[in-house]
Amino acid sequence: MKRVLFFVTVLSVFLVCAGMLYASPADTIQHRINDLQAKIDSGFKYRQLTEPEAKKLQKRLDNIKAGFEKAKAKNLPKSSVASIEQKLDALAKDISQERHDAQKAANPSAEKRINDRINTLQAKIESGSRSGQLTDSEVRSLQPRLDAVKKRFENAKRNSLTTEETKAINSQLDNLSRDISKQKKDDQKKKKGR
């Protein structure tokens, strides 16, 4: 009796393992789709993918999912399996490349710091104008520069603010801050009509 029970147990384990090794093509494809979805999600969550990169990769995965569903409706022909597997291979390679490229999404607190710096510089220009530390011509020179930085910042946020873009914007803000301070201390007094 013990031998029979042992034989049945071994046979059951063997059948379960064999079933796992020989999963259907549909199961294999679905597993790969789920795996790639998790990689896109975690890549965006941990800022390995920028928003545009994640959207582009997600769109490709969604197209593969739609093709897979159509193929399943046709009992998953071998030609469809090969095509889907090829697309999944290419997408997996691209996800890996995008997650490991040098471009990183900026830290969300970087956006806040840049926004705070822009607001501070705007307040300095306005207070300098009111107090007479900045002439009208100096304000007309400084304000468009700050406006250009604001515009660049807003465009960068829409396209997912990268570390490189953050550095460039901060450099512009540093230069502008230095110029505002220099202009406020240059002993020029605001003249009416200037």
Give a written overview of the molecule.
- The chain has two domains: 77 residues; 77 residues, Substrate Binding Domain Of Dnak, Chain:A, Domain 2.
- The longest helix has 24 residues.
- Helix 2 runs antiparallel to helix 3 and helix 5 packs parallel to helix 7.
- By secondary structure, it is an all-alpha fold.
Topology at a glance:
Layout: H1 2-21, H2 25-45, H3 51-73, H4 78-100, H5 108-131, H6 136-158, H7 163-184
What's a quick, concise take on this entry?
This protein is mostly helical. It has helices spanning 2-21, 25-45, 51-73, 78-100, 108-131, 136-158, 163-184. It has two domains: 24-100; 108-184, Substrate Binding Domain Of Dnak, Chain:A, Domain 2.
